[in-house]
Design a protein that fits this description.
By secondary structure, this protein is an alpha/beta fold. The chain has 15 helices and 12 strands.
């Protein structure tokens, strides 16, 4: 539980220092929650969605590090974006920016010299500017088309009241707010998110079953003899085969179905070699849609203690999703 500390007094212990930064950050976020301007956010979002350019994030020092994170978040959620270092921009990197781009500049004071040196170039090129700052009266804020402000009612929360702490947290929250608004307004989906995250856990968890299923899967007819069923399963290398009737999925045969059918036949002194696919198969197998997330398909396999699922549409098999496919794609 947070302990209220006098923000004007230096902390007397490590515990007080921790509470000081927590209190300062909480009060800054509470102030933002009650003061942000929906019209400003909407206007900025309309401009970005209607623009052919990119969103360029800019900031010095700690604000620059936050700007890099915001640029990465925007890029990963469907908004082309990159970080531009103000000092490097003044020495040639300004050529990376076009007049179709939108610049978002972070500066707590709004008076960072490197930022002020860069502003005339942006204005001369006719580039639209958004500012994230705590000073609406600053030169940065006054030059911006959109100003996303915040307050620090209890200061930075730094024991020395010097290092940026609460301000960088609120700046990052502002960036996330803008990104979240863009995602909703642009109709950004999980499918698109997966496209931008092809590697790692995020991408794998958003894969659909049809993305990793086997489209070359074994198949036999109801009248297929026992040996041909075994041959189909061996060639398919999935430990199973589908059984079709007039092109429709009629059942599946797994290794377990083979063992059970052979055991049952031998128990009545029959000849397993006389078995046909229809005598061996399991009817009404568990099927899924190709649009089902692969991670959800993994849950079905786990709950039913099976190693594969048939992907079907309108009764026709489209492919087979095997547990090995889930492992190879790092879904599980």
């Amino acid at each position: 539980m947070s302990q209220r500390i006098d923000p004007s007094s230096p902390p007397r212990s490590p515990a007080e220092a921790l509470h000081k930064i927590l209190n300062a950050t909480q009060s800054a976020l509470a102030a933002l929650d009650g003061s942000w301007d929906p019209a400003q956010v909407s206007a900025w979002t309309d401009h970005v969605i209607g623009s052919k350019g990119r969103v360029v994030l800019c900031g010095m020092g700690k604000s620059g590090l936050v700007a890099q994170k915001i640029a990465a978040t925007l890029a990963s959620t469907g908004c082309p974006s990159f970080f531009l270092h103000p000092a490097e921009a003044l020495h040639g990197d300004l050529g990376m920016v076009t007049n179709e781009d939108t610049v978002v500049i972070l500066s707590n004071s709004g008076e960072s010299q490197e930022i002020l040196n860069l502003l005339p170039s942006f204005l001369r090129l006719g580039i639209k500017i958004a500012a994230i700052t705590s000073k609406p009266e600053s030169r940065l804020a006054q030059s911006a088309n959109w100003c996303f402000t915040y307050r620090l009612p209890e200061g930075e929360g730094c024991p020395l009241e010097f290092a940026p702490m609460a301000s960088t947290t609120v700046q990052m929250v502002w960036g996330d707010m803008l990104a979240a608004n863009l995602m909703v307004r642009s109709g950004f989906t999980l499918e698109k998110f997966a496209q931008f995250h092809p590697a790692g856990n995020i991408g794998s968890k958003l894969l659909k079953s049809k993305d990793i299923m086997n489209i070359n899967y074994p198949t036999v007819e109801e009248s297929t003899p026992f040996f041909e069923v075994l041959s189909s399963m061996t060639k398919g290398r999935l430990g199973m085969t589908t059984v079709l009737k007039n092109g429709f999925l009629d059942g599946v045969i797994s290794d377990g179905d083979i063992r059970r059918a052979v055991g049952k036949t031998q128990s009545v002194k029959g000849n397993p070699l006389d078995l046909l696919a229809i005598n061996i198969m399991s009817r009404k197998p568990v099927t899924i849609s190709g649009d089902l997330l692969a991670i959800e398909a993994a849950g079905i396999m786990e709950s039913r203690k099976i190693t594969f699922l048939v992907v079907e549409k309108d009764g026709y098999p489209q492919g087979v999703l095997h547990i090995h496919d889930l492992l190879a794609a790092k879904v599980i």
